[in-house]
Structure to design on (80 residues):
């Protein structure tokens, strides 16, 4: 699956983040964030150049989402 845009979410009660191919985040695991996921940003795959996150991006492409514990701060500054 080739990604176009990814959506970045943050768990509203913790420090977990998630990527999703779905802008609504309805495919994100509720068990990882019981209070709900908040949409933070829409990212283009070209914005995600950090090698460290290549596996997370690949996992998102394969399963539609990926939960991570941290993200680069400049991703939070991306306009939706």
């Amino acid at each position: 699956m080739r990604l176009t845009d990814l959506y970045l979410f943050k768990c509203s009660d913790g420090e977990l983040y998630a990527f999703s191919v779905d802008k609504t985040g309805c495919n994100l695991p509720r068990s990882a964030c019981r209070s709900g996921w908040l949409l933070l940003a829409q990212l283009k795959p070209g914005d995600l150049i950090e090698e460290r996150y290549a596996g997370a991006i690949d996992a998102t492409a394969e399963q539609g989402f990926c939960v991570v514990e941290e993200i680069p701060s400049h991703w939070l500054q991306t306009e939706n």
Notes: The first helix runs from residue 54 to 63.
